[in-house]
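Lab notebook, bench 4. Continuing the backlog of folding jobs that were queued last week. Each job is logged with the same field layout so the records can be merged later without manual cleanup. Today's entry covers F-box domain-containing protein, a 457-residue chain. Filled in by technician R.K.

JOB TYPE: sequence-to-structure
TARGET: F-box domain-containing protein
LENGTH: 457
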Amino acid sequence: MEEDSDYSPQPSLPDAILLDILSRLPVKSLHRFKSVSTQFRHLVSTDPHFLKLHALHSAATRRVAVLVSRDPPSSVALCSVDTDTLSDPSFIELCNDFWYSYPSAKIWNSCNGLVLISISDQTFFVWNPSTRKKVRLCFLPSFYFPASTGYCLLGLGFDKLTDEYKVISAFQTASCGDSCLMLCTSLDGTRVFSSSNESRARRIKDFPYSVCRDTPGCNVGGDLYWMVVGKTGDPAIIGFDFGAEVFVETTQPSWEPGVSKYGLGVLDGSLCVVCHGEGNVEVLGLKKGGAVESWEKLFVVPYSAGDLQFKTLTPLCVTGDGGVMMEIDRKRLVVYNIEEKTCRLLSYLPHEGKEECRETPRSWQGLRLNRRGGRGGIWRFAANLGRVVEEQHDDVALADVGLIEAHNDSSGGELGVGVGLARGAVDDEGLGAELRYVFEAVGLREIVNCSWGPGIA
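JOB STATUS: finished
OUTPUT FIELD FOLLOWS
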């Protein structure tokens, strides 16, 4: 039998082109393509080069999604906003996605879309809200001590030398003096290494700082920073070198008199300090020129900007027209025009004082799913999306959404404050009915969070 002369085999795409195409797809579509072949499944699930490439493309998206959780808790909506136009928002109703709800539940921080959360002093998870997968961390020894006897720095970061995600935990008690106990545990995005992986707590002798209670790290490009108190009583900013696993003191800004509160955060991919002074709020940014670092004034916002008056603000992100999206008084979302010194309320977000939102990046890091526990409580999230997903598929309903914050479903009280995907300690002011925003850039630019240092104000 003669073969059809018109038949010719379909050409296959070169691996480089295929990799580039897949790396530009949203997470939801990648879930579907995992079933195409073993090659596809391996590529999108475990290939480290693909994960980095996908994160880079995700970082270029110009849409920011804010997840708003209303009262009653059953009403949850995702608002997707174009940061270039700040118009035509789209809302999607969501259901509860996370099954843990305990009084001690807390979001600590995030890195590249992975979230470090705890549901008790001994139970910690790294969770990927984009893939809906999470894995339990091995026991963190520093949390064995009673909370009343010590203070802790905690955070999830990325070691660029070894391409490993690591959790740093540093514990300080009254008996430590100028030292602290530190544990750095590695994880590879698929599983957490057990206690046999040579990670162990050790004493850091040269640590002349006072640590604020349960302070998450502020994540900039995988590196963690904290606001602490120096020996002189002035604020100090310290970072953690994941390669050497040591704390380092960064270049310090000028701590001016008359500032009532300092906030540590990230804006446009750089570390920033928010200084609440007399009459205005000044935002400083850390600029790097080779080996030289310096702090520069980014902008100043008067407490009465336009028709809006406020007491505190948190810068979130830079908009397409050069403005700054901010939250004020943890209740309202505004855009500040730096040149005209005016604030514009983003009216499409509800402001009845019953909603809360944050923003976090999506990530395609594989984590083995181990779903346990029961219903109760509601998690508020936000994500940076390439597009909004409206339908469900398999176990990936709205795969591009990132977890941000937990609230008790019965009282509406705040259970924990995360920054970053990392952010400050649990708030004692009963702000459960107020809005909170924490911005995090997508992809490899990691989080933008504002971590207010208790005891520094």
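OBSERVATION: The chain has one domain: 15-452.
SIGNED: R.K.
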